[in-house]
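subagent[fold] <- orchestrator: predict structure for attached chain, return tokens only, no commentary.
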Amino acid sequence: MRKAKILIVAALIGVLACAAAAGERDDLWKQVDKAIDSGLPKTAIDLLEQIIPGALEDEAWAEATKAIGLQIVYEDWIQGRSMETAITRLQAEIATAPQAMKPVMEAILAHWFWDYFGGNRYRFVQRTASGEASGEDFTTWDLARILTEIDTHFTAALAAGDQLKAIQIAEWDDLLEKGTTPDTYRPTLYDFLAHEALSFYSCGEQ
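subagent[fold] -> orchestrator:
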């Protein structure tokens, strides 16, 4: 069974290492790992920029998703940017991503918003709803609005339910952490994403 964490989510919250993806770009991924272990995120970014086009061309969706997400994380890291910037950049990537990548990218975005909420929970809880439509600046949102946004992205991640149920979870091995029990517990991508969403819907603020 997969752990309830996507590798890019782990990277955003501080686990800045990634397992090498199997395949023809295996050596590049090993170099990415080495660069991060050596504290060289700029080198890692340059390598990821070499990986992304080939992964997209080969329709290696899990590998491409991981590479794009890590590129955002590492660039924000070296430039001293905030989680807000990472969220905005991921939103832009989703807008142009192949459809096959969007469900998982939407789940990652939901997690990033959720992590942002978690780091600023006291601010959201203290704000009262204005009764007016919220603007695009999510740093000013109230509790109800941020929770609605997270729900929107998990809902988008699960929207193509029939297609997701036809995708074996093993096809996303490059992105997901391995657990200790068989994939039969959550055999499809739909099962995995649904479990990710349920972890949000069961949080106390709901």
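orchestrator: received. Logging for downstream: Confidence is low (pLDDT under 50) at residues 1-5, 13-17. The two ends are 26 Å apart (CA to CA).
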